[in-house]
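chain below, 774 aa
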Amino acid sequence: MILSIRKTILLLVIVSFGFFGVKPIFTHAAISNAVQVELNKAYNGKLQQGKNEDDFYKFSLPSDGNVTLSVKQRDGVTWEAKILNSKGQVFQSFQTDDSELIEGNASAEVGLPKGTYYIEISSYDYSSYDERYEFKVGFASSNNYEKEFNNSLATANIMNVNQTYKGNLSDSEDVDVYKITVPSDGNITLSMKQQPGVRWQAAIQTSSGKVIEDLTTDDSELIDGYETRQVGLPKGLYYITVEYYSYGVDEPYEIKAGFEKSDNYEKEFNNSLTTANSMKLNQSYKGTLNNDDDKDVYKVDIPSNGNVTVSLKQKAGLKWQVSILNSKSQEFDSFVTDDSELIEGYETMQVGLPKGSYYITVERYSYATDEPYEIKTSFSSSNNYEKEFNNSLTTANSISLNQVYKGTISSDGDTDVYKVVVPNDGNVTLAMKQQEGASWQAKIQNSGGYVYKELVTNNDELVSGNASVQTWLKKGTYFVVIKDYYGNAEHKSYQFITSMKSSALKSSQIKVTNNKGKDDVIAVSGIAKGDVVRVYNENSKGTVLASKTSIGTSVTLTAKQIGQKAGKVYVTVMSPGMGESDRVATSFSGEQSNSLQSSQVKVTNNKGKDDVIAVSGITKGDMIKVYSLSSKGTVLASKTSTGTSLTLTTKQVGQKAGKVYVSITRSGMTESARTTVSFAGEQSNALQSSQVKVINNKGKADSVTVSKIAKGDVIKVYNASSKGTLFASKQSEGSSTVLSIKQLGSKAGKVYVTITNPGMSESIRTAVSYSAER
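prediction:
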């Protein structure tokens, strides 16, 4: 204010000189005679009253930069110093302090482009005459200093983003204007260094002068750091202004326009549906509300039916209100963030929406102006979310049986209505997931409003699971109606299912073949086209062994292995639009046991007592069977093993040599193929000595005649009752046979004769005496 009065007085003096015909002042003449001084060097001089009351100096700047004019201060003396151009226009002026204990320099800074400028030093009052002054013109080359005159959009200094600039306001009316080019869509952070006792006001605006964002620095005693504002801007040209707010004259300031390229910043002006910023799904966006009445609007395109989740990061002491609207500004849902001292994380809302364009609005609720926020809209494609508006029977969402659906009660009076078609008569179950601190009411009703069943979920602290009801319904269309029951479920996501099971199969419809060495087969009959049949290994949970959709009235499924041993499979059917039926247990036989090796079986064909079959290399519990034939036939013997070997007996496997057929049935498995095992015949009956006649000839071959035998019998003659030498052997061709022996012996003696009937073993030896040779 004092400075303005002084300028007014000076102007009056100049005008007065003009009226009396005196030369307007000595400024131009003096400037023309100004003494050249060098930069960054000290100079001195003296003012004399009535002689040289003003001294002028000239200096040249080699480049753009910052000029600092310093004048040494003295006790009791006041000088006035100015920086001017050749037209006498003052860039900066100041007076020295004449306080008693004053020290140091008084100074002023100004940014100037390359060129020639002038210094004027004059008396402020009579104290300065005949007193020597001392001054210096300091210079720092830089493009990052405000360059006067830049007090309009037309004369604005160019400012590069992400660089710090320094400047001074020469008086309370001075305005410094900078021009910035935002190279692409992104976020501008306007920062101004704060200083105790000084306040500046800075703003970012359009070329038409419309302020987008502004700030005022803090002048608190202990203030430090920067005052900042963030604003998202599209690519283009903008202006930054710096103005005096209080005590900001002749005080150097520091300002910066930081820039971060991004499409994910709110871009002003976006305070209506028509100017809404486009928002991509599943990406975070940042923004700032510039004033209490500011509103940021975003447009989001939903590519298909699904669930939209809007989230805004919460901050202590700040409240934002967020809403989601349609193009008619009808609100689907909204929330207000929590401003609690220790708050963290995000406030969210979920709403199911059909494919289309929607709008997200962010508004101040309390203390949220000029505070950066972070918002995100996530999307999950699905037909299983409630789609607003669905608060009446006519606007009900269509749902399918046996599918889980999610939704949200968006306000106290909100009601969500769903329409479900029951394809045939049967029991329908309505189940709703329970949640701590939230109670929902759900009803099953018809179009006339008749309620068949209803439930209310439990909101206790440790609640879990589902609340459910079941009712028998005829084929037809019904409605599920969901409300907030206690007023504590608003904005909370619920989950429910309306289910109906398919009728279970009968075991007679299922046939299981447990194959050995190839896939097992499960055949199901008496079903319909489109039915899904599943085969499990357990009565509940377990593993799905096979699954297949029928293309007719029956279906055949295959599984790698249902089990080697006998067991059960559990089969379900799921008709279209229905839930899976209960499981039906179906037994199956084990695979065929591996056959025995013939070496594991030994057959003893006894004469006159039971024959014996011995089997080794088996396991306890194995069942052994001995058959008379390779298929069908008679079971000669059967027994279960109690160890690793087994002995079976049978009255007669056969007198003559032959074969038996032995199988094994291992525990839990079916009978093996039969293994063929040969056995020898029984021992032939011994000859009677009367049947044998021996002639011991002299000089010729001896003979043994055996009678009353059969064709094919084999007769053998030995020299001893056991072992010994075989004298002769011959197969009979009739009822008797004669064997010739070279020499039985010259003296009387005995021979030992056996008979082997066809298919039987050799008889014991019969002793037959003979006479000496004659």
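The chain has two helices and 57 strands. Residues 2 and 734 are 166 Å apart (CA to CA).
thats it, cya
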